[in-house]
Each structure stands twice: as structure tokens, then as C-alpha cells.
Amino acid sequence: MIGVDLGTTHVRVHVKGRGVVLREPAVIAMSQETGDVMAIGEEAARMLGRTPGSITAVRPMQDGVIADYTLTEKMLKGFVGKVLTGPSRFLRPTIMVCVPSEITDVERRAVLQAVHEIGARKALLIEEPVAAAIGAGIDIAAPVGAMVIDMGGGTTDVAILSLGGVVRSSSVRVAGNAFDADIAGFVKEKYELLIGDRTAERIKREIGAAMLDPDATPATLEVRGRGLVDGMPKTATVTSTDVVEAIEGSLEKIAEVLRNVLETAEPELVSDVIDRGIVLTGGAAQLRFVDRYLSAVTGIPVGLAQDPEDCVVVGTSRALDMADVLADARRRGTEFH
Fold first, then answer.
1. Which of 2, 105, 130, 324 is the most buried (most CB within 10 A)?
2. Are β-strands 156-162 and 165-172 bridged in parallel, bridged antiparallel, or unpaired?
3. What does residue 320 show for φ and ψ, rounded to 5 degrees?
């Protein structure tokens, strides 16, 4: 049995009994002339922005859903082929894939079809916040409210769960990639410097923050790119203050979704969340002080899960052993399909 976190920026695969066996960028490189797959994952990611005209390196996932069905299918087939080695390569496994909480029926069918096409015996879907909660060790079957915020590359999912199902949820297509775009745009405007996605992500990871630490001097990072005025190589020193200002709008969109979920939830569930706190998962959740920022928005303690990047894929795999609980939730019209 295999659990797949089919993310916008990374694909993670968990195999029962072996743990997380694959963590690679969701990138595929194709030959323009023959249509053959040249590379996937890490190797393909190194080609982004550097390929000759005969090769195209792209991300077939956008905002947590399939943007290019054919390329996603080929990429998935390559990743599953990497983890199924030896005699197991002849097996047709059951594969569960996590999806954002608010994707459309058309998008759901596209994911299921892609999984069936790569040879799965059975294809199942689970919503990201449910998988994240399971992976973070939350007992979602308990008759109390538990709240999870999953911040990935393309989407942020917010959900309150109880009795094995999603009671209230919402999703916004703003997360780690939006932060990168915000940073690149800010550097372009303030420093008249064009930088790529990798440089923007490096700024976010090394000096990025959701809010400033009043007791610390803002961190700085020297970055290089192309000057906007003359097109020549140029260097600028970016600060953590710049990052906080750059991503302020995106963080407010996430905060708005969080407030809406709490405002529409039953008072008893909100009381449970206040008592238990909010769990934060996903790669973008590792942005410094984002837990403090969200706690300030709600007045509720927010804690970062252990191994936040792997919570979704671990929960996706564990969910395969919770068929009864999740099937009950499905009968109530919730997250398991």
C-alpha cells in the first residue's frame, strides 16, 4: 500500500513498512522532438531555466491540482517505478493520494484517472487536512474538535475535524509558492533586480519570517540577479524586514480563511480548539514565526507539528489502515472518496 502526497512543488511517497521512501521536486523534463521523458524529480528540477530548446522542464501541478494530465501521469509513473523495485515492481498496489479540501469533481476525477493509469489496483483520495492531522498524531476519530492548518506549496488548507470527518474547512490557493512570488516581485520593485524562483525561495528559507522579532536585528542576505535597468548582473542586500513586508498580503489571505472557518464553526468545536490548540503542518509552515502570526490572529495557541513536511504523506499512508473510520465519515458526506 502506497500513500502519495502529490504536491505542487514536491512529491512524497510513503510505502507501508518502509516509511517515506521518496521526496523529490514535482518536475518533469520532456524532449520536444520525441515526447520522451528525459528526467523527473531532482534531476529535472536542476534543468529548470537551463534547458536547450529541444527539452522542456515543467511543473505539471499548479495550486495543488493537475494542470497537465499527461505529464502528471508520466511523472507519477516514474516516481512509483522508483519505489517499486525488485519483485514488488510486478505488483499492482493500492494507492491513496491526498488532495486539497476544495478541489472540484473534475479535478478529483483527473487525479483518480492518473493513478489508475499508472497501474494501481485501487485508487483512493483523502483531503490534505485530514491526512495532515493523522500524520501529526491527532486522534481524528475522537468526539472532540481538532484544528489543522496545512500550508503546502500551492494551497493552504484549514479544517476542524471531529469523529473522523471534516466538520468545517476552507482552502486558499496561497502558500509557499505565493510567498516566493511575493518576494521576487518586491525585490524587483525595490531593488530593480530580477531574481529567479530558486533565489526567492532561498531568501524565504534563510531570512524569511512572517513577523519581525523585536529583540533581534533583522537578518540580511546578499543576492544576485539581472538588473532591471541595464540587464547587467547586479547584487543587492535583502533583509528580513523586506520579506515580512513582501508576504504581508498573502499571509492576510490565509488569516482571513482561518477566521472564516472559526467564525462558522459550532461553539463547542471552537471551545475544543481553544483547549487543544491548532496544529500547523506543511513545508511552508516552517516559515519563521508563522505560528506566532496565526496565534496573534486567533488568540489560540498554534504549534508546529513534528516533521511538518512529511505529515501529509505519512497520514495518507496511515489512513489506509483506518478504512472503517473514514468510511463512516464518507457516509456522512465528508472527506474520504
1. 130
2. antiparallel
3. -65, -25
